[in-house]
Structure formats: structure tokens, C-alpha cells
Amino acid sequence: EGLANPELHPATEYRFRHKDGSCRYVESVGSNLLDDPDVGELVVNSRDITERKRAEERLQHQAFHDLLTDLPNRQLFMDRLKQALRRTKRRRGRKKKVGVLFMDLDNFKVINDSLGHEVGDRLLVVVGERIRGFLRPEDTLARFGGDEFTVLIDKVEDPADAVRVAQRIIEALRVPFIIEGRELFVKPSIGISLGEARTTSSPEELLRNADMAMYQAKKEGLGYQVFEPVMYEQALRRLRLDNELQRAIESEEEFVVHYQPIINVQTEETWGMEALVRWQHPERGLLNPDEFIPAAEESGLVIPMGERVLEEACRQGQRWQKEDFRIPPLFVFVNLSARQLSHPDLVKTVEQVLRETGFEASRLSLDITETIYIKVLEGNTAALDGLKRLGVCISIDDFGVGYSSLAYLKRLPADVLKMDKSFIEGIGVDEEDTAIVRMIIDLAHTLGMKVIAEGVESEGQAEQLKEMGCDFGQGYYFARPLPSEAVPKFLAQ
């Protein structure tokens, strides 16, 4: 019909088998030249378009595959997941589900940062190859980007089948990878979700569930975790909390700082104040740090929150000194989280706060928990070195709960050791706790550090600490955390 109209020149593509066994593509275009006196024929022009077709196939492949690992990408994975869910509608007899595994590599960032992106890229390639070797041909392994991989398991009869796949992957990755002569170890965290067309609203829901299960596995230090509906409720609560935290930071009114006195147990004079952030939630009332700091740490909101607490504490310490000359110069203790300590602008921020508030660097002590402190010592100490150059004091918080070697004490560039309250509870009651407290005090003094006993709640504990030569105490026996306006009255008394 096309040739009947002289103005139309339809093109047709053919695929032929070449005599060498390869396939060739040919495009043919017909022209109706019957009315042309010089031709008077139907003319067909053909040309070899094999290279063009192969280029199109390459582009098509690149559009649906990861350029680094050549694994299916997110788009192709989601399409296959959608098709797999549709197939569950047509299956009769015993119900079979679709399984999704969502995984990332726990320590990949450390490898990438320390050895470079080239080594990191090569590691991702060989990780993908190894995982693929432990899957069935009908399963789909995809790379979502970064160190995130997903696996689509079709026709899952029992949840244990998907768990076994996760276990095989974990076992496979236990064997180290050799790259540029180095042994590299990777540990995956895997989330597992199962679904079928009647109960799963969309492929995105199944993937989201696997992602939440992976987050739970990582949080609890497990290799894998199967999704449970309660995880969705927890995720919603977490999202709501993150939004409320963001709003509270922007409002500049909901976060308040209370101060707990630190007392010289030898003279019973107030030596310092620890700044403790509280959240004046508009609906839930005054919240303690353990109700929101972990979420702020994970989301990164602890950084702007921490800056605000630091500035308020330094400003308040300077204000007390100016308003009443009888108040002795007080040390102010401010907690530093892991996220704050690793932030590249920490030293610059502290320096700026000290300059703007006029507070003396030598009267500011930054609290770092023992476990975080040890990790810093084993890695990058630039932040600690920078803070020490400013003249800021460093205190090791919760000492004793990290169960680190006492040999670390020789390397700690710290000024103050804060003994965890779990040891103070046993003073005079438990012989081992009493001996440990005495040993810590003596050892810290030998190394030139002051000692603060946390959680002092009775006169007997205070007397024992005084007898042992402890420098300072902090706890409900001396005073509970106070709002800033109540501190001058406490100091006067």
C-alpha cells in the first residue's frame, strides 16, 4: 500500500544470518517510480545498519545497567520487580511470594576514604561478581548506587528461602578481597521483605520495607533482618521526630539549657557547671536528652543544636561572672557527640564562640565519651589537637563503661576524667567497685588529670570519695540540674 503512493517511502528493517554466523541488520526503503519515464520501476534501496543497531542496543543497555558494575540499575530492577509481582496474581495452588533483599556495606566508606575511590570502585565490582555467583540465574542482582545492592528473588515459597539467600551472601563476603595486594573485608547489612500482588500495594512499598529492615539490621548489629510492620510505625515516629527537631532548631525557643553543679568534694565549693540541653516540646513537655539526642545524632541535627548549646553555655558562664563578682570563675562543661567531633568545622566553631562570648578557653571543658574518644585516638586526632591549641580542656565522660584498656590513658591528651556513676553506686558496698574507683583516682592523678565522680547520690558516697582523694563530684546529692536563672541563688547559698 505504501508503494502505491509515490510520496511515501516506508522503511523496513530485516535481520539476516551472515555466512560467518553473525547477525546483520539491513534497512530497505521502497520507492514507486512507475510513472517516472526514465525508470518505470519499483525501486528498493537497502543498506547495512548493523553498527547503528548495535549502538542503539548499547545505549539501551547503558540506560538500564550500572556503568561501573554492569549490573541492572534501579530502573531495570523496579521494572522486573513490578513484573514479578504481577506474576503472583496468576499463580495457582500454593501461594508464592516475591522477595527483595536490600543491602549496603557497613565499612565501605572507611575503605573508600582511606584507600581512594579507585580501590573503592574495584571493590564494588568484585563484590557484585561474588554475590552474583551465589544467586540463581532467575534472580536479579542490581546496584542502586554507592555501596547499595538489591536482590530480587522470584517464587519464594517460604520466608526461610529468602533468609537463606541473605545468609549465603553474608557467608560469601566473609572471605577477604585482595585488591592491590591488600586484604579488604566488607560486612553487609541486609533487609528482607516479602510480598505478593494481593497484599503489596506497589514495588516501591516492597523496596521501602526492605530498606527499613536493613536499617534495623545495621542499628542492632545484625547481619540481616526481616521486615515487620512495627518497623513502619517506628519509621513514621522517627520521621515525625526529625521534623519536630528541625522545627525546634529553627524556632530558637524550644531548646533550653540546664546546668548541673560540679562540687569540689574536698572544700564543698562549686567548681563548675555541666550544660545539659532540654527540649521544651510544645505537646510533650520538657524532654530529657535521651529522648531526642540519638535521633538528632543520626540526622545530623545535633550539629546546629550543639553549636547553640555551646554558645549559650559560654555566654551564660560569662554573664554569671559579670553579674556577681563574688561568684568564682566557673568551669563550664559541654558535651560533644561523635557527629560533632567528626565535623570539619568544629575547631573553627569553638574558636568563634569563644571570641564572640568572651568566655575564657581555659574554663571551657568539652565532654567526650570514652568509647568515642578511643575511636578518635585510633583514627584522626586533628580535632582534638586543634581544640588543645585553643586552650580548651578535654574531659573523658562515662569513663569505665567502654571497657577500654587502661593503657590508653597514657595516650589521652585529656585534662579531666569523669568516672561513670555505675562505679560510684558500689562505693562502700561492693569491694571491687570501691577498689576500681580508688585505682582510677590514683592512676588519673599520676597522669596529671583531675577526677570527677558522676552520680553521687548520698553523703556516704561523698565522704568515701573525699577520703580517696577524688577531686570533684556531681550528682543529686549536691544538686539536680538547674535552669540558668536558679544558678546564682544556688551559688550564693
Backbone structural class: alpha/beta
Tally of alpha and pi helices: 17
What general form does the structure show? elongated
- Radius of gyration based on Cα positions: 33 Å
User: Helical residue percent?
Assistant: 40-55%
Estimated share of beta-strand residues: 25-35%
| Main sheet strand line-up | 11-12-14-15-16-17-18-19
Beta strands, count: 20
Let me know the average pLDDT: 83
Report how far the terminal alpha carbons are from each other: 106 Å
Q: Biggest β-sheet: count, sense, barrel?
A: 8 strands, mixed, barrel
Low-confidence stretches: none
What labels would you give this structure?
493 residues, eight-stranded mixed beta barrel, single chain, 20 strands, alpha/beta, 43% helix, five-stranded mixed β-sheet, 17 helices
Concise summary:
Helices cover 43% and strands 25% of the residues. It is of the alpha/beta class and 493 residues long. The longest helix has 23 residues, at 229-251.
